Sequence to fold (158 residues):
Amino acid sequence: MSGVVVRPYQAADAPATLEIFSRAITTTARSAYSAEQTAAWLGEPPSLPDWDRARASVRTFVAELGGRVVGFTDLDDQGYVDRLFVHPDTGRRGVASALVSRVVHEGRRRGLSVLTTHASLVAEPVLSRHGFEVVARETVHRGDVALDRFEMVRALRT
Ligand SMILES: CC(C)(COP(=O)(O)OP(=O)(O)OC[C@H]1O[C@@H](n2cnc3c(N)ncnc32)[C@H](O)[C@@H]1OP(=O)(O)O)[C@@H](O)C(=O)NCCC(=O)NCCS
Fold:
């Protein structure tokens, strides 16, 4: 979608990205997971300094719409995409799509041969549209709570 600007994460983005993480799980992901599952996924809220350190420890990108941070993703040195979250107020407008395009571009730029991720049931269609393929459907446990997700791979040679 035009109007989405993707740029590198900065420390000042910590509050907005933490809010997006929380809202995306408790609101958007509820279309595919129970309240018990989303609470287990969310876990205990991290402190802002811890959250910022985690975002800065990998290459994190944020998406802005109208000057407001509305989503983020990341890419580590091995080509693993850990996070992909968009604020529910700006869902289904191509924000995630713009973020995924950016990490695919970034992976190619770094000479990686594949990107890998574990995608939620909600994120799988967006990633599939960008060439990620499901390798396996798996169930992970957060405490006693089971969560289904997809292991996905994106070849970068093509
Ligand atoms: C998955 C997510 C990042 C997509 O963000 P987005 O900016 O809305 O995505 P795009 O606009 O690029 O693509 C839209 C697609 O996302 C999926 N999607 C978005 N909102 C959705 C919702 N409320 N319910 C179900 N699917 C949804 C659909 O496949 C949708 O395609 P469609 O409109 O043709 O059905 C966002 O919904 C989100 O943050 N979800 C909750 C957290 C999550 O699951 N993160 C992934 C962790 S691996």
